[in-house]
Structures are given as C-alpha cells and as structure tokens.
C-alpha cells in the first residue's frame, strides 16, 4: 500500500513529462524548437517531435502561401501623369531559421510590414523608370512590369526568409483631383469630333442642296425656254392665221375686232358708257343703214362671205415658216389690223373719262 502510494505520483509525473516533451507538427506548418531563445531544432516534416519539457518551447509558422495587400500608393511614370496603384502579393516562408532571425518575436506581422515596404519601393522604381509611360502601364506590357516587380521584390525578401511567389497590380487609376480634368478633356475631344462630323454633314448637305437647286434651275430654264419657243411658234401661227384672215376679208377682221372690243368693254358691272352720238364704237349695231356689199350689209341680209381657209399645202408651208425662230418673224406679220379698223377703242376710253357737256346722255343701268 505504501509502495503504491509513492509509485502513483511518480507515474503521473512521468506521464505529464512525457506528454509535455511530445508535440505534433502539422503538414501545413513548420516548427522551431527554441531553448532560451536559441534555435535548437527545425521540424519541417509532419509528424511527432520531441523537446525538453519546461526548458524548450515550440514556435510554429504557417507553411502555406500567404496573401498581402499593399497600401494604395501614387507613382509618377516617365510621362509625368500620376497614377494611383493598388497591388497585392503572394508569398511563403521559405527559410524559417532566417525568418526567425530576421523578424524575431514579431512573427508574421513584422514580416508583412517589411515586405510591404519592399513591394512599394519596387513598384515605384519599376513604374517610374525611364521609357515606362502610363499608356504602357495600362497596355499589354503590364504583365512584364509585374514580373519585374516580383523578381526585384523576391531578391530583397530573401533576407527575410520569404519567397515572393507573385505580385499583381489590382487597380491603376488617376488621382481623384485629376479625374475631373481628364473627363473634361475627354468630353471636349468628343465634342470636337462631333462638331467635325456635323460640319462634314452640313458640307455634304450643302453640296447636295446646291446640286439639287442647280438641277431645278436648269430644268425650269429648259422648260421656260421650250415654253417660250412653243409660245412663240403658237403666236407666229396665230399671227399668220390673223394675217391670212385679214387678207381674205378685211371687213370681217374689223368686225371681229369690234366684237372683242364690245366683250371687253361691257364685261361685268362695267356697262355704263358715255360717248357722242356719232361715235364709231357701235357702228356694227347700225346694220340697218349699212350699205349693200359691205360686211355689215351682208350680215344684215343673212349673206356671209366665204372665208379662204389655207389648204393642206399652205398649212405645211405655214408650219415650216412657224418653225423659224421667233426673232425672224417679220414685223408686218405680227402687226395687228390698222387702227382705222379698230372702231373707237381709244375713243371709248376718252369719251368715257372726259365727256362733253353737250353730248352727254342719260345712263342705262
């Protein structure tokens, strides 16, 4: 009983010491065995490992690829256009011994602060180098620039025991104070292009409109010319017919002109006339006193003189004469009948406007 009383505490202590001397290394971690702050062992393989209890301690570090987002920084390429760059990096702890010696007890937090400084410096150096413009940063050459940043950062991060796997530029924008000016310049450029397009459209419209106006003027001029030619030919034919009719029977022509004068004078409400009793205007209304043998006497007797109309051969000759230009028509052909055969046209106007006091007659409405 007494022996069991002594062995039980010894057994418990032995078990506690054994358990405290054993630790497990995960496949996602690397471990360092430290004794009074000095590195005594490095455990990189997963499994069980041993340490001296109460004297040695175990420090574990993540062996996976870690991510680091850098702060937004401004860079100035060679074309002096400032850009705001936001980047991130992928890294892992390659050498835990060197990492422990570089960062000490700070661990991952201190390592990321120092790695962020390295990345910012390399980003400014690469993007601000000669022949690196903002257009190149925003073009397909951006991948080559990121590779250069990664390689430069990897060389400096080796002193921390870190391996920089990749570096990417998430965003590359203009500063906020430059965005409005850039947008204004883009709007001005678009407005200039729009004004150029409108000007070219107006020029084309003016060209088409001028061509259409020219075509209209030419068409109207040609139509007017043809109309004048046809009108001249018709006038020549009419004058020729009048001349033949006048030559066939001058008395009938005088009678016809008198009828036209009656129609024009007694049209509408213009039926009041003041003239002398011996006026020749109404000469053909006095047919009962007309002598025999005259046209008026023949009309009163119901005998109309025959009219000599042009035959087919004369019509062809007349048509040949009419086809001549209007300027070549003789003045004698287009003259009206003699003034003596136009009964009282001017006398009507003079008598109607200035009647004599002795010759006035009452008006018949």
From TrEMBL:
Record field: compositional bias (Low complexity): 345-355
Transmembrane portions of the chain: 6-25
Gene Ontology MF: a single term: peptidase activity
Stretches assigned to the Band domain: 20-186
Name listed for the protein in its UniProt record: Protease modulator HflC
Places the protein is found: Membrane
GO biological process terms held by the UniProt record: proteolysis
Composition bias, Acidic residues: 356-365
Signal sequence coordinates: none
Family: Belongs to the band 7/mec-2 family. HflC subfamily.
Major localization class: membrane
Cellular component, GO, one term: membrane
Alphabetical UniProt keywords: Hydrolase, Membrane, Protease, Transmembrane, Transmembrane helix
Pfam families tied to this protein: Band_7
Domain of life: Bacteria
Start and end residues of each stretch annotated as Disordered: 296-365
Membrane topology of the entry: Single-pass membrane protein
